[in-house]
User: Fold this.
Amino acid sequence: MTAGTVAEQLLLLGDEESSNELAFLDFVNDVYTIGGDPVALASIIDDTGRRSASGLSILDTPDLFATGDLTDLLISGDYTVVVEFSAGNPGFGGHRLFFFEAHNAGFTLFGLVTLEVFFRTATGVDENDAADQRTVEDLDNDYSNGTNRMAFTRTDTHIALSINGNAVLSDDTFSGTITNLDTVRLASANAATSGAFIRKMWIYNPVSDTELPGLSS
Assistant:
């Protein structure tokens, strides 16, 4: 297949260096790059035991935190993130998966950036600070058992989301700079989970909304 769009070209680059790629995390194959340079898993997360050939397990406890350059990148708040994840039939409703949450040291809602997957019913992105909130939720396109992919852009003026190639949803309710963030929790859930994994993550400089469905396909 000949890659004709920016989205196709980015994903085909995978673990190769790209001028637009900030990081590539392949938890399935245990391959990681930050800024085009290979890094060890132990240098970017604080518990390598959560990684297996299935990916990075999403659990309610214990907490798993990003470290080093990955923390610095995720608290910047200026990127497009693509997350490939897998989850079996949950057998319950109302639980959420959090791919990453960026906080200040007190774990307050100030500058919170959360990528959430609501089991089978919605996929959304939520951002709060002390005064404002902006949210994008795809309530019409349930994700399926097996492998899924979502693409999300966050800048100070814009958030946008596409899951599994679906139409882009966005929110420009307010503009705000993320400040005072220093902690990133990864692969967490609000209740006990089983068989849910982050398989891969790509982090890019922000791309246009038109590219998001290609990245999430």
